[in-house]
Amino acid sequence: MGCRYNSRVGEIDVKELLSCWDVIAARIKEAEHILLLIDYDGTLTPIVERPELANLPPQAKECLQELAESPRLTLGIISGRSVENLRGKVGIKGIIYVGNHGLEIEGPGITYVNPVARKTKPFLHSLCRDIGKELTGIKGAIIEDKGLTLSLHYRLVDESRVEELNRIFFEITKPLTASGRIKVSKGKKVYEVRPAVDWNKGKAIAFIAQNFNWEGETLMIFLGDDITDYDGFRMVDDSGGISIYVGEGDTETVAQYLLHSTKETYQFLNMLRKALKPKGN
Ligand SMILES: [Mg+2]
Q: pLDDT band at residue 279, thresholds of 50, 70 and 90?
């Protein structure tokens, strides 16, 4: 069976991953080593109203655990959450955790915190308090201090008050983005505030690839669902890896392959797990 292209994406060559399994399976079979990096929210767990409620289903965790144990594969979970929060959510030992959009990385034998981000931490902490104070009147606004970055979630804010939230938020942040102190990006009903450093998920992935010395050639596979993952897709594409967008494909999709939902993510991971099993098991 041939690979199906996603019709909604139009001219961009985005393939429906599950219809291309044979092609991917062949590359997995060939690869000496696989670096599998997966975003958390929206990729491994469906987007929920409150970020603390996004939990990994037990079967998915089991599957990840098994993948992590495969001698030919290194697993990393990558997220806008802090490493501490992410580790608590995923709960698998001995894998790589990439937090705060790549600003912090922890794994077997590796600890990295972006030096500029480390210095900006106290400033972001007080900024978080200031924004929180100004937004106290807006019900449903959740401001999250993640150490090196902060998030303003507005999924629970009534539609009629989003404009006001935007006004307050940008009144505070605009002068700081203009002076090069911080960067603001928009995700799915969330604003992310980060120190203004030239660092992103793509650079974090490159850092991981350089700092671990795996035997043989490494095939990188990266799954993500949001704008902050695009740098990761580009990095993985440039290295000859496999980039996978999870969600309903649209013209912004920049990955090679598409999975429609987190359910399809689990399906893919399960297929990968089976493909990596030594023969006879
Ligand atoms: Mg995500």
A: low
- H or E element: which one contains 104? strand 104-107
> Which of 8-22, 149-163, 266-280 shows the lowest per-residue confidence on average (mean pLDDT)?
8-22
For residue 249, name the pLDDT band (cuts at 50, 70, 90).
Answer: low
Q: How far does the centroid of ligand 1 lie from the alpha carbon of residue 46, in Å?
A: 9
What are the two backbone dihedrals, phi and then psi, of residue 160, each rounded to the nearest 5 degrees? -70, -15
> How remote is the CA of residue 229 from the centroid of ligand 1, in Å?
7
Task: Kindly give the distance from the C-alpha atom of residue 116 to the centroid of ligand 1, in angstroms, as a whole number.
Answer: 24
Structure confidence by residue, pLDDT tens digits, 133-171: 999 999 999 999 999 999 999 999 999 999 999 999 999
What phi and psi values does residue 176 have, to the nearest 5 degrees? -75, -35
Residue 108 tokens read as 């077997």
> How far is Cα 128 from Cα 209, in angstroms, rounded to an integer?
33
SS3 233: helix
How far does the centroid of ligand 1 lie from the alpha carbon of residue 188, in Å? 8
What domains, with CATH codes, occur in the chain? 16-113+199-276 (3.40.50.1000), 115-195 (3.30.70.1020)
Task: Report yes or no on whether pTM surpasses 0.85.
Answer: yes
Give residue 167 CA to ligand 1 midpoint distance, Å. Answer: 25
φ and ψ of 275, to 5 deg = -65, -25
Reported as a pLDDT band with limits 50, 70 and 90, residue 252 is low
Spacing, Cα 41 to ligand 1 middle (Å):
4
